[in-house]
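Incident review: delayed structure delivery

Summary: a single-chain prediction request sat in the queue longer than the usual turnaround. Root cause was a stuck worker, restarted by the on-call engineer. No data loss occurred. The affected request and its eventual output are reproduced below so the record is complete for anyone auditing the incident later.

Affected input:
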Amino acid sequence: MKHEVTKQKASPTNARSNGNFLYLFIGLLFTLLALPFMDVMASMGRYSLTLLFSVFMLVGVWSLSGSRHVFRLGTLLVVAISVIAGFDVFKGYKVLEPIGLLLLLMFASLSCLIAARNVFVWHRADLNSLLGAFCVYLQLGLIWAVLYRLLHLYDRVAFSGNITGEGPQAFPDLVYFSFVTLASLGYGDITAAGGLARTFAYLEAVIGQFYLAVMVASLVGSFTSRKSRE
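Output delivered after worker restart:
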């Protein structure tokens, strides 16, 4: 009898802790669709895109974390990223770009960890968990794209091929390269030429394949477990 009461009390908490991935998914999808148009945007347009992405990601962290400390940390990171992006876009302070990238890397890693915990700890086979698994996959691609951009900042020959932009304009090309590598497509129009860039590239490919295998196994296991209980 006590065990039944405990289960009934734990169930609502688990439902809340599972979070809502819709906001995070919309923010990530919007950002990826808007990235190719950054080259033709004016300074205000590029800054607005960065700010909107930051707001979507912050709402995503708020809907998933359930912790005030995590949400405050996310808010501080978003404010810092927005301020640095403003100085970079309007004042041309290029020296701040590495700091902004590092903060973005921290924020994306934080949201990715929160989303992964919600997907793989609670093991729910529903639409929300599927969106969450997709969000984790998209965030992995963005995290590696930021790492590639940091490498590109300090080593211009780290990548060769069809990188059309210079400075921040090269970021959409590196996002493209990151997702092509993550999915193990290997088109070859952009290649990692430097030693560290090659190491990051094959690590991303391995993690991408491993993640898909774990995700499918987890979702299938959750679905099978739910069916057996029914």
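Verification: Confidence is low (pLDDT under 50) at residues 1-17.
Action items: add queue-age alerting; document worker restart procedure.
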